Amino acid sequence: MEDRKKPVLISIIVPVYNVFGYLARCVDSIRRQTYRNLEIILVDDGSTDRSGALAEKLAMGDRRIRVFHKENGGSSSARNLGISKARGEYIGFIDSDDYIEPAMYQRLLEAALSENLLMAQISRDEIDEQGNRMPDVCQPPEEAQLWDCGRFMRELLLHRGDCSFCTKLVHASLLKEERFPEGELNEDFYLLVKLLPRIPLVAVLPQQEYHVFYRYGSNTRTRDQEQFPQVFTDIVRNADRVYAIVEKEYPALLPEAVRFGLFQRLDYMLHIPISQMNEDNEFYCQVKAYLRSHRRQALGSPYLTRKNKAYLLLLGTAPKLARRVHRKIKGKGR
Prior knowledge:
The chain is α/β, with parallel strands linked by helices. Helices cover 42% and strands 17% of the residues. The chain contains twelve helices and nine strands. Strands 1, 2, 3, 4, 5, 6, 7, 8 and 9 form a nine-stranded mixed β-sheet that branches. The radius of gyration is 21 Å and the shape is globular.
């Protein structure tokens, strides 16, 4: 254990892009942290509203805040700039429309230091635009737990784990060589699965102290049925990347990795607009061919439901019909 006479500095990186109406709430929730030895790095990613000016104004009220401005390059680009400027031993990330509870970083740091960990994770919830709490995406544990990297990977592959870096406190040494992929979405998953083999244990805490603000107009949420967010192609690419990692590092988890690849393609096929389901769409054709060639794996997977398997089989053979059936089923459920 290192000398702890000096309090640990935590760097909190906040990418900022056209969030004028939400930024003050986010930053105020960081400033109110019970753990005080923080630096707050606001990276204005080429905002076209007043977000950049607001960031500078907020910095005038707290000397712990540092502001950087750059041309627009996306969240990963902004985070990577923040990492290069960070001076803390541990690093956290917060999305600029989200907010946190006052004890969050105190809890995370205590958990990390008590076990000399490279990563600790808090739990989260999601709040919609009307202030209503939404169903949990990730079920928090009943009590604090320590997961080894294999357990954490398995939870991710079964869609029970939380891949978001916003809920995590990460030792800066993990980010010296690895960075978020620029120009892609699902970037947290991409980086996390690359880092996991280097992380012996992760503390997973039950408190839901990170609040995701669920709003339409983000990279993954849209009301327009003809829009197809890039994230749905990126999750398929990441499924193949994680399969290669599992094959090398966690061969016992290959059945879970197969399930993950199938499920990500199911998600893709259930969201792509029917108008884009044609032979000119190369990526769509690749997904359809994959489902056809993996019928046996889909049927034999113990980790897929009967409904999952039925959709996968139908989407591989008659995808447009499957989508019309899916649309009717969704309509009846409203």
